[in-house]
């Protein structure tokens, strides 16, 4: 029986793409992914399907075709961390899925900052702005790491935390990880609040 392959493509650069992922994609009949993921395989001639907000359309295509086609679903970073795997598991059994890990941007951010992450609390503020939850996490956890976006960027996060009495922490902002424009900034929350950052960022907040 054909497996539906859910493949982590890493943070974005081909340098961080695992050889097993490249092999499986090369053998696939259909490649499904976001625009950045498909860009990595722009020279491949297989059928390509862009993931949009209409996830049901992707699910229906996979359900209708996976028995006769080899399907590769590409997800950013690692499939186990805020990816489409969570959605597809609602409709397909474990026996129907094959998951290949990738290097998460969170993992790369810790490496760039020379920090261990075995003791970190990992979450995401991508697409949401739950300030109360953020304040509670940073207040009670020694090390917090999360994805951010333009709706609640790192400088606003830092400003909010300082305004609410969090002054004994440092922050690390890793932007555009794995790309030529990559930048890692480590500073006090007050200093971070005065800076501007790219849309694609990972933020780590930890004790000084």
Automatic annotation (TrEMBL):
Pathway terms, separated by semicolons: Cofactor biosynthesis; adenosylcobalamin biosynthesis
Residues forming coiled coils: none
Ranges of residues in domain Tetrapyrrole methylase: 3-192
Keywords for the protein's UniProt record, in alphabetical order: Cobalamin biosynthesis, Methyltransferase, S-adenosyl-L-methionine, Transferase
InterPro entries cross-referenced by the UniProt entry: 4pyrrol_Mease, 4pyrrol_Methylase_sf, 4pyrrole_Mease_sub1, 4pyrrole_Mease_sub2, CbiE, Cobalamin_biosynth_MTase
GO molecular function: protein methyltransferase activity
GO biological process: one example: cobalamin biosynthetic process
NCBIfam families assigned to the protein according to its UniProt record, in alphabetical order: CbiE (TIGR02467)
Name this polypeptide is given: Precorrin-6y C5,15-methyltransferase (Decarboxylating) subunit CbiE
Lineage: Bacteria, Bacillati, Bacillota, Clostridia, Halanaerobiales
């Amino acid at each position: 029986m054909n497996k539906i392959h859910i493949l982590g493509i890493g943070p974005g650069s081909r340098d961080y793409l695992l050889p097993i992922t490249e092999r499986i994609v090369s053998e696939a009949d259909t490649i499904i992914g976001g625009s950045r993921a498909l860009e990595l395989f722009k020279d491949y001639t297989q059928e390509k399907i862009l993931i949009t907000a209409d996830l049901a359309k992707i699910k229906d295509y996979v359900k209708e075709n996976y028995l006769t086609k080899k399907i590769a679903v590409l997800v950013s970073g690692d499939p186990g961390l805020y990816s489409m795997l969570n959605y597809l598991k609602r409709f397909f059994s474990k026996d129907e899925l094959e998951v290949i890990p990738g290097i998460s941007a969170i993992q790369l951010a810790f490496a760039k900052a020379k920090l261990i992450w075995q003791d970190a609390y990992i979450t995401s503020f991508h697409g949401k702005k739950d300030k109360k939850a953020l304040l509670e996490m940073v207040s009670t956890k020694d090390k917090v790491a999360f994805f951010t976006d333009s709706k609640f960027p790192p400088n606003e996060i830092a400003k909010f935390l300082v305004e609410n009495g969090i002054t004994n922490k440092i922050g690390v902002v890793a932007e555009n990880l794995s790309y030529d424009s990559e930048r890692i900034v480590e500073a006090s929350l007050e200093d971070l609040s005065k800076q501007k950052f790219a849309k694609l960022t990972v933020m780590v907040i930890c004790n000084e």
